[in-house]
Design brief:
The structure is a single chain. The protein has about 150 residues and is mainly α. The protein is built from 6 helices and no strands. The longest helix has 26 residues. It is elongated and about 45 Å long.
């Protein structure tokens, strides 16, 4: 997991246009995107706990988590290679049959995550809550459409 996190953070610093597909097979691609989504979920879950009052709201910690999600949001698309709809995955085949819509939703997630990071830097809890809600809503919509339950 540490290796995947380090790889993900290093990769986030490069433009996705420059990154090449570096998977030996489709199982590698599936594992990659699952690992990235797990790290996103960890960061997002921590922010959610703060927003729900299950954990004290810490502006600095929230901003760090938001920055992490913004950086990581650029990584998963690389792992949706042709043929990786089969295997140990919760991804629906609709991702590949409706790639345009999926790509649009993923790009929106990137925009939402970037906005959340920007708003988190202000420390304005009301604005942060609104940006977090918008990001969570769009994230859930993608899950509802493209992820198996």
């Amino acid at each position: 997991m540490k290796k995947v996190l380090l790889t993900a953070l290093v990769a986030a610093s490069f433009s996705s246009a420059v990154m090449a597909n570096n998977f030996r097979n489709t199982e590698d691609a599936i594992e990659y995107r699952q690992d990235v989504f797990n790290v996103i979920a960890h960061n997002f879950g921590d922010m959610g706990a703060m927003m729900k009052g299950k954990k004290p709201f810490d502006v600095a910690a929230f901003e760090m988590r938001a920055q992490n999600v913004a950086a990581l949001s650029k990584l998963p698309l690389e792992g949706f290679v042709p043929g990786s709809n089969k295997g140990n995955t919760d991804a629906k085949s609709d991702i590949w049959s409706n790639k345009g819509e999926f790509d649009t939703k993923m790009k929106q997630f990137q925009l939402d995550a970037a906005n959340l990071a920007k708003v988190a830097a202000t420390g304005n809890k009301a604005a942060i809550k609104k940006a977090f809600g918008a990001t969570a809503k769009n994230c859930k919509a993608c899950h509802d459409t493209f992820k198996k339950d």
